[in-house]
C-alpha cells in the first residue's frame, strides 16, 4: 500500500482542509487513481470518488490554469469562486504521483480521443 509521513501530512494540512486530504487519501487507498498514458506521451487521470468518476489533467499549459478536473466542485469552488486551491480528485492525483500509487493503464490514441470527447462534452 502507500504511506504518507506525518511530516508530509502536516505540511499538507497547512494548505488544505483536513477533510479534503482525508478524501484524497481515501481515493488513493482504494486504488481509484488511474493514470492513462498514450504511446505519444499524452497523460491524463481518471479518479473515482464518491460523486462518480472524473477526468483530471495536470501540467497543462493553458495560462493560469495548469490543471483541470471535470467535477462540479472544481468548476465552482476552484475556477469560479476561487474558495479552494483544488478538489479532492486533483489532490489525490498529485499525492498518488508523489508516492507512486497510480494504477497505470496504457491507452491507444483513438480510444483516448473518444474518451476525452465523451468526458468534456458532459461537463457543462
Ligand atoms: Zn475534482
Automatic annotation (TrEMBL):
Segment forming the signal sequence: none
A GO cellular component entry from the record: Shu complex
GO terms for biological process, alphabetical: double-strand break repair via homologous recombination
Keywords for this protein: Metal-binding, Zinc, Zinc-finger
InterPro entries, sorted: Znf_SWIM
Domain SWIM-type: 54-98
Protein origin, superkingdom: Eukaryota
Molecular function GO labels: zinc ion binding
UniProt name for this protein: SWIM-type domain-containing protein
